[in-house]
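subagent[fold] <- orchestrator: predict structure for attached chain, return tokens only, no commentary.
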Amino acid sequence: MKKSAKVFGTICGILAAVCYGTNPLGALKLYAQGMQTSSVLFYRFGLAWVILAVVMLIRALPRKGRRVETLRVTRKEFGVLSALGVLFIFSSLTLYLSFHVMDAGVASTILFTYPVMTAAIMALFFHEKTNWITISSIVLSFIGVALLYWGDGTTKLPIGGVVLVLISALTYAVYIIVVNRSQLKMSSFKINFYVLFYCALGMLVYSFLAGEPLMLPQNATSWFYVGWLAVVPAIMALTLMVYAAKLVGSTATAILGALEPLTAVLIGVFVFGEDFSLNLLIGIVLILVAVTMIVVLPGRVRGQKDKRTSV
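subagent[fold] -> orchestrator:
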């Protein structure tokens, strides 16, 4: 793989992590206005799907010098896309439910256990080689996230919330691996068109099963935050994550995700007025060091062959 492709993939991984880390910003604002989890996620996924439908319509128009992309998929591709949709439904739903029982910043930091899960799954089931750089990056990131979580050292965790976030982390780790290993020969827009359709449909089913009738956003502010959730942590994060997973691999993409809890903590400090302690400062520094190691040191993550897929 060309160096420029790896650089582009790394940049995509960083931006995907930052975008996904803004989930609490929109979710907490909508919760404060009385919207339930099913409604927040349905409108997030539904609006994102509509936007991508327009994008796919434009990409289907004949244009000189560009390949026309249709929505047609093979039976195998349909199966993979279905699996991705189900995985992301569970990951998003469990994370958003955890926001009701613990601080969103805390939930986002615990979510960062998914790089460890990704590395473990890749090593155990796909025989991916690891080196000291990968291991050191994971350890530093994990310590940094722990410091972000503890803050002033007095936080107590609800077990139910921890279980929800760990399920979210596991399903997100598997999602990244499936994207990387599936060799889907289609654009990230097409992949996410189907994934978001499944997610919106899944929220309709969950709304019915949970007895939570869907609520329309009540004002312009609510629609703004719905739009934010649809564009930034949905379309942008998912699209950039597909590029990153294909170009730099599952493990590297997951480690770059250290910037997600960092983003969540900064949002908590500057938007919701949470305290900025010494632990937070040290945690941020450790995370940045870990990300820098995985990005700039040579031979950092190996064991994954180049995937010649369309992005």
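orchestrator: received. Logging for downstream: Residues 300-311 have pLDDT under 50 and may be disordered. The chain has one domain: 3-60+74-296.
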